Amino acid sequence: MKKIIPAIIICILLLAACGNPTIGEGSPGDGPSIEQGVDDSENQNEDSIEKDPKSNIDLSYKPNESGKIMILMYHNIGDEEAEWVRTPANFRKDMDTLYEKGYRPISLADYVSGNITTEQGFTPVVLTFDDGNLNNFEYLENGQVNEESAVGLLIGFHEKHKDFPLEATFFLYGEHPFRQNSLIDEKLSFIVENGMDIGNHTKDHNGFKRAGLQEIQDQIGSEAQFLKNTLNKDGYEIDTLALPFGERPKDETLTKYLASGSSNGIPYENIAVLNVGWNPAYSPYDNKFDHASIPRIRASEVKVDHVGLYNYIDYFDKHPEEKFISDGVAEIITIPLDKKEFVHAAGDKEIYLYENH
Predict the structure, then answer these.
(1) Which single residue of 37, 101, 115, 338 has CA 20 to 30 Å from 350?
(2) Is 298 a member of any domain?
(3) Residue 263 sits in a domain of what CATH number?
C-alpha cells in the first residue's frame, strides 16, 4: 500500500542517493553505522541480543539488500498473446512463477523510499500496468470485478496466496481511465482502498522526445491534478510517473521537469520516474539508484529480445548473488562484505555487513 511519505524523509533519501556519501565506521557523529557480522555472542549478554534487531536476521538466507529488483511492465490482459498483451492464463503463470521462485510484490513507493519489509529470504518485485485500458479493471453488469481483468486476477491470486501482497501501480492517462466513464471515481477509490496505487501516464500519452518545457509540465501536471481531484482522498499524492514510450526530452536541460515542475500554477513532484527499459532496477540503497530514471522489464514472452521477465528470472536463478534478498528487518540494510562499496546509508538505517562464504 502506498505510504504517505513526509517530505523531509524523501529529501533525505534523494540527497543520500545523489551524494553517494562515504559510509562511516559508526563513530559518534558519523551518521548511520556499519556493523560487520562477526560472531561475538560470548561477549554479549542475553538482554542485549534480544534488543538488537540484527539478532532476528538469519544469515543462512544470504541476504543481499544491495541486489537488483525487477520492476515489471504490463499493459493489456486479452484473449490472444501479443507484444503488449498477456492472456489471463499466462498472467496467472507469471504470478505462479514469481511466487514459487520467492518473489513478493512491494509498492513502488516503498521501493523508492527504501521501506522494504519483504520477509527475510524473499525478493521484492514491483508490478506496474500502463495505459489503464478496460481490460485492466472492468466492472461487470452484476457489479462484480471481472475476474479476467488485471485487477481481478491480482485479487484472485492474493486470495489464494495471502503472503503474496496485493501491490501494483496502474499508470493512467487522459480523463477516461479504465474506460467505464460512469465508474471512474469508484474504480480509483477501489484500487487505493485495496492497497494498490494510481500513477501518472500523462494527459495525452504523447512522447517527450521533442516536447518543450510548457508541454512537459502541462502533460504531467494536468494529469496529476485530474487524477488527484477525481480520487479526492486526503493525503494521497499522484507522485509516480511512467514515461509514454519511455521517451525523454532530446533537450537534456528539460529532463529535470519530469521529476518536478508546475502546471496552472500548481506544482507536481514525482518520487519515481519510470522508463520502458530493459534491465532490473538498482536497489534503493545502491549508489547508482536514481529515482528519476528507473528501468523496467517487459513482462511478456513476445519480442522481448532475450531481456524479458523469464530471461531475468532464469538469470537470477543462475546468479542469486545479483538479486535483492531481504533480511526481513526494515531498519537494517544487510549486505555481504564484498558489496560494501556499492551502497549508501538511507535515512537512519544501519548497514550490517557479513562475510558471505
Answers:
(1) 101
(2) yes
(3) 3.20.20.370
CA angle (3, 283, 278) in 5-degree steps: 105
How many domains does the chain contain in total? 1
Kindly tell me if the per-residue pLDDT of 25 is higher than 50.
Answer: no
What's the pLDDT at 344?
Answer: 86
Domain span including residue 251: 23-341
Q: What is the largest CA-CA distance in the chain?
A: 67
The values of phi and psi at residue 286, to 5°, are -75, 140
Instruction: Classify 146 as helix, strand or coil.
Output: coil
**Is the pTM for the entire model greater than 0.90?**
no
Start-to-end CA span in the chain (Å) = 36
- Position 140, amino acid: L
Q: Measured between alpha carbons, how far is 210 from 325 in angstroms, rounded to an integer?
A: 40
On whether residue 216 sits in a domain, the answer given is: yes
Show the beta-strand stretches assigned E in the chain. 34-37, 70-74, 76-77, 85-86, 103-105, 123-131, 169-172, 197-200, 240-242, 260-263, 266-269, 272-274, 297-298, 332-336, 350-354
Burial class (CB in 10 A: 0-12, 13-18, 19+), 242: buried
Query: Of how many residues is the chain composed?
Result: 357
What's the mean pLDDT when you consider all of the chain?
Answer: 89
From 72-76, 107-111, 277-281, the region with the lowest mean pLDDT:
277-281
Higher pLDDT, 230 or 4: 230
282: left (phi over 0), alpha (psi -120 to 50) or beta: beta
Q: Kindly report, residue by residue over 36-61, the tens digit of the pLDDT.
A: 554 554 555 555 445 789 999 999 99
C-alpha cell of 291?
529515482
pLDDT at 3 over 50: no
3 is a domain residue: no
Question: Interhelix angle for 88-100 vs 150-160, to 10°?
Answer: 40
In a domain, 10, yes or no: no
